[in-house]
Amino acid sequence: MGAQQAPAQDAAGGLVADLRFSQRLTWEDDDFYATTGIGLALTSRTRNPSFGLFLDGGLELGAEGESGVTLADPVLRLTFGHEAASSAIDLSLRYRESDVDTLFEEDVFGQDVLVFDEGTRKDLSTSLGFVFGRDAPFGGSLDLGYSTRRYSGTSDPSLLDEDRTSAALALRFDIDPRIRASLRASVAETDRDGAGRDIRNESLGAGLDLSVTQTLTAGLFLGRTRVVESGAGPRSVEDGLAYRLSLTEQRPNGTLSGSLVSDIDEVGRRTTARIDRDLELRAGRLRAGVGVSEGSDGDLRPLISLGWAQDLPRGSFGITLDQAFTTDSDGEEALNSQIALSWRQELTPLSSLQTGIRLRDTDFLGGAGVDTRKITLDLVYRHALAGDWDMLGGYTHTLSRQEGASDSRSDEVFIGVEKRVRWRF
Fold it and tell me: What are 109-112's contacts with CB under 8 Å, separation 24+?
């Protein structure tokens, strides 16, 4: 067994263990505390089977309102995969505990509304995926999922515990090298506690993918969606046509695509048309999209997406703008918008400076939802020390704004050390 500093990526075979250790002192709004961070990633580099164990979290001493040592933001993730000649199976399990108002970069943007509240959120999810006939004219996939969300110490009545189960089956038929047909069926159930509404979503449909030319592909999906809402209040059923039409053209410097999508959920029907362009330029990578969406209220709303990533001589720069519709646990529809800017620069061969600004906005389209906005500014300085240790310090300023309430500001300053080590077995 050998130990070395952890590189960004390693393709060698065998078992690899990555260990992260950090010690940090933080001052936040007149509250001073120490955090010991520990992270472990254990992964196999062999193809069959492959697995991973990921642990992360911290031990806090002196946090406001707490006595003794407390566990901070624990994360556990397990993965397992096995591949055969024409099939594959994947299993995963994930547990995460965090503050209710915490946002994570790895989460799919737009799924959750922005929340301002005290308390803790615990998320547990597991999934099973099976693929067969990957190299055959006939194949398919089966995906099963289960997740739970639990809240504690909160005051917002709309934050309800919930359980979600899902199953999806897709069958593929390769008619010839240019034409592929498919059948898809799915069902998802969301069970909310208390006064929350329970949702069952059923979908069945057929699709066709066609290679029109060597660079142009077209896709068509037609189906039926049925949404049943029950629990507190009267039972309601939404049933209607679901369709998707898409065109994608491969160009020398990227792709150009357009789509028209219409489906129903617990709020009603939403139809969205958009055009997207991806460009690989000498100066950087650009993605841009524009669209228009109509909801059950009949109002047309624009949708915009933009992303620019550029490698600098000794750093990098990026900016993104994204928008997406979502529904909260009360069945209220909202538009999530996010603007993010990041910049990183190497000051010397041993030191670097990184800064970022992110604005997140949740705008409810009606009902009793409360509009919210959060602006976060981050600044982090890192300096390499001897023995694979890094010293880092940083500052974070957060502005939170909620409709009908006064603005809230938060300042955080930290300094600490960090070490990353890799072992190969």
Answer: 109/322, 109/324, 109/336, 109/338, 110/322, 110/323, 110/324, 110/325, 110/326, 110/336, 111/326, 112/326
